[in-house]
Specification:
Elements: H1 13-20, H2 22-25, E1 30-32, E2 38-40, E3 43-44, E4 47-48, E5 51-52, H3 53-62, E6 69-73, H4 74-95, E7 104-106, H5 113-123, E8 129-132, H6 135-144, E9 151-154, H7 160-171, E10 175-180, H8 185-196, E11 201-205, H9 230-242, E12 249-253, H10 263-282, E13 289-291, H11 315-333, E14 339-341, H12 346-349, E15 353-363, H13 379-387, H14 396-415, H15 421-443, H16 455-458, E16 461-465, H17 469-472, H18 474-478, E17 485-487, E18 497-502, E19 511-512, E20 515-517, E21 520-522, E22 525-527, E23 537-540, H19 547-550, E24 561-567, E25 573-579, H20 584-590, H21 595-611, H22 617-632, H23 641-654
Parallel strand pairs: 6-24, 7-8, 8-9, 9-10, 10-11, 11-12, 12-13, 13-14, 16-18
Antiparallel strand pairs: 1-2, 2-5, 3-4, 6-15, 15-16, 15-23, 17-23, 18-19, 18-22, 20-21, 24-25
The structure holds pyridoxal-5'-phosphate.
Pyridoxal-5'-phosphate binds next to loops.
Length: 655
């Protein structure tokens, strides 16, 4: 669908920047260069060194890495850990807080080995540790953690094995905390510690009653399934006292929820946490750590608002609110300042990954030229043609109603066998042309009839992207999560089309119809027109948190290729890691096929065909080769060089 256009010469990079909001959600990391490419900025010694993502895509092509690709920037991960730690430190210095900040990364947010290893390595200088919620995550943390002063915080339900793993970590010198989430695990922890003769580090998770807005609000409040209520907290204290272990209770844990958009909710939650902290101290617990969990939000829409997919605060404000509130509340009670722990996951990893894909096909709903009227044309078709004669703003609703009515009549007659397919085709073409006329008429009107408000969107193009929503953007499907989506190149050209995106699964839910455009949420995204043979690349940004392992094998599209890039100070970059995505053989084995058996069965089939004289032995050999090559191939749409040419010839032959 065309959008009203300015002359292309007037189109500026600034307009593209505002349209796609890169300057709003991109933080210091992403912007657009004068050639119209999206660049990643690599600040170094007070200078920025932008690198075009198109340059990185060229590097992938040279290495025969096919789209879709999940592109990770190690530098961004490093920078977000530095920023979090250093901002807390600055605020602590500024307000004279008498203790330190020590963060942990919750592994569930992105468990991929590369990410966890990079955080362990880079985070060591800040003693940045891990939060784990299962035995598997515990093992991942223990095997990668570098600094022994870093914390390992164990949440979730813990069985004996989990507890023994943690106690062994303590023996190795790690600061491993068990956070008690239910009273049932308390006796096991006490019994195991005594049996192994190890003093555990204990925490309690308090159930928060502060109500939080945003999608994840339900994690907090009375109905939260996590944590101990005040009655249970007292029971835990008494139990530990009885077993002479109250001095092991060193940490209070409060997780308000994820993606908290409103800073006021964070402040409110911290006040409540401090009240628990102070009273547990008064009960005799040796508290020295206050862990505020996750919640630091990512501004996916770039709107800086208190709505769900945004946030109305900066990192500095977040740190100030936490440090100030703890200091003020505990000073009043005359209690020493604890170590401040947070478990930021989303904000730590969201920026590091970008999903890149190419557009495979575009379907537009442009009207074709009107079919010639024949002399004995059916009255219904004549009526439809007539509509063009009274198309004007005052009668636009009437035109729409009429078109709708005649089209439905034609469909009805077709069903009853009274008109043929050819006539129905003429009617549908007329109908489309009328809708386009209506759309053009509406564009001239100040106020449009309510019923017609969605008409323009319904005529938008469909761009088919080489990716699976279910594998790569599960939250877009499951919880309507918005991610910034931007063409990676051609941003110096005005985008003249409006489109929704469809993926290559054959599921009608495999589509994106919600975009942030010009600071508003819209159903269609402005895009550039794509010629045959032309590659067009789109990037889905801020996908580093929660997307990679939640994804599934819908239609058996597997993991995408993953490329990790490190940017150097001189504007060069290195491909530090490449992980090839799943092959067809891989995904089939995930769903319990035996690749070896599949190949044997296919071989038997073609051999039988040779016996029956359907194919020659030579043809058999070719078929087996092709079959085996497919088994080794990528699950996504692979473009062969020859195919691109062949396609364009075919298209020419049809038109
Ligand atoms: C999920 C989770 C986090 C991470 O929250 P983010 O909002 O992603 O930072 C932290 N702590 C706990 C206990 C969690 O369950």
């Amino acid at each position: 669908m065309n959008i009203p256009s300015f002359k292309s010469s007037q189109w500026t990079i600034e307009q593209a920047d505002n349209l796609y909001g890169v300057n709003h959600w991109g933080g210091d990391y992403f912007s657009i260069n004068s050639c119209g490419d999206v660049v990643i900025n690599n600040p170094h010694d007070g200078d920025v060194h932008p690198i075009s993502i198109m340059k990185i895509i060229e590097g992938m092509q040279d290495r025969e890495l096919q789209m879709p690709v999940l592109l990770r920037f190690e530098n961004i991960l490093d920078q977000s850990i530095s920023k979090l730690n250093e901002t807390f430190q600055q605020v602590i210095n500024k307000v004279g807080y008498q203790n330190k900040y020590q963060g942990v990364y919750p592994i569930k947010v992105n468990q991929q080995a590369q990410i966890v290893e990079e955080i362990a390595q880079f985070g060591a200088r800040y003693n940045h540790g891990f939060e784990v919620g299962s035995k598997a995550e515990m093992i991942a943390a223990l095997s990668t953690i570098e600094a022994t002063d870093s914390l390992i915080i164990c949440n979730g339900y813990k069985d004996q094995e989990f507890i023994e793993l943690g106690l062994e970590a303590i023996k190795l010198g790690y600061k491993c905390f068990f956070v008690i989430e239910t009273l049932t695990e308390l006796p096991i922890i006490v019994e195991r510690s005594q049996a192994l003769n190890i003093r555990p580090h204990l925490g309690v998770r308090a159930k928060m009653t502060s109500q939080i807005s945003g999608h994840w609000g339900a994690t907090s409040g009375e109905r939260s399934v996590f944590g101990l209520n005040s009655n249970q907290l007292i029971k835990a204290v008494d139990y530990l006292k009885q077993h002479a272990m109250l001095d092991c209770l060193e940490l209070l844990h409060c997780h308000l929820g994820s993606q908290i958009p409103n800073i006021r909710d964070i402040r409110g939650g911290v006040v409540e946490a401090c009240r628990y902290y102070a009273d547990l101290c008064n009960e005799g617990a040796a508290l020295a750590y206050i862990d505020l969990g996750g919640g630091l939000a990512v501004d996916y829409t770039g709107r800086q608002s208190a709505s769900g997919q945004s946030r109305n605060y900066s990192l500095t404000e977040y740190c100030e609110d936490i440090v100030d509130t703890i200091k003020a509340t505990l000073d009043q009670q005359g209690l020493p300042h604890p170590v401040i722990v947070t478990e930021s996951g989303r904000a730590t990893v969201a920026y590091t990954s970008v999903l890149l894909f190419n557009v495979l096909d575009v379907v537009d709903f442009e009207p074709e030229s009107l079919p010639q009227a024949s002399d004995n044309e059916h009255q219904l078709l004549k009526n439809m043609r007539e509509i063009f004669t009274y198309m004007k703003p005052q009668r636009v609703q009437e035109c729409y109603n009429d078109a709708q009515y005649y089209r439905d009549e034609v469909r009805e007659l077709f069903k009853r066998g009274q008109i043929d397919l050819r006539m129905r085709s003429v009617a549908e073409t007329l109908y489309f042309s009328i809708l386009h006329e209506i759309k053009n008429t509406l564009a001239t009107m100040e106020r449009m009839p309510q019923e017609l408000a969605g008409l323009a969107d319904s005529l938008a193009d469909i761009y088919y992207g080489n990716f699976s929503l279910f594998q790569s953007l599960p939250d877009s499907w499951a919880i309507d999560q918005l991610f910034p989506i931007v063409p990676i190149h051609r941003l110096n050209e005005e985008p003249t089309r409006r489109a929704m995106l469809a993926d290559i699964t054959c599921d009608c839910d495999g589509k994106i119809e919600k975009f942030v455009v010009d600071q508003k949420v819209e159903k269609t995204l402005p895009l550039h027109s794509v010629e045959q043979d032309q590659e067009y690349y789109l990037g889905v940004f801020l996908v580093g948190a929660y997307q990679e392992t939640l994804g599934d094998l819908h239609n058996l599209f597997g993991d995408t290729n993953v490329v990790s890039v490190r940017l150097n100070a001189d504007s060069s970059f290195e491909f530090v890691k490449e992980v090839h995505g799943d092959t067809i053989e891989d995904v089939l084995s995930y769903v319990e096929y035996q690749p070896h058996e599949i190949k044997t069965r296919f071989r038997n089939k073609v051999e039988a065909a040779v016996r029956e004289g359907k194919i020659s032995a030579r043809e058999r050999q070719h078929m087996i080769k092709t079959f085996n090559a497919s088994m080794q191939g990528y699950t996504y749409y692979e473009k062969e060089e020859a195919e691109t040419q062949q396609n364009s010839q075919n298209v020419r032959a049809i038109s």
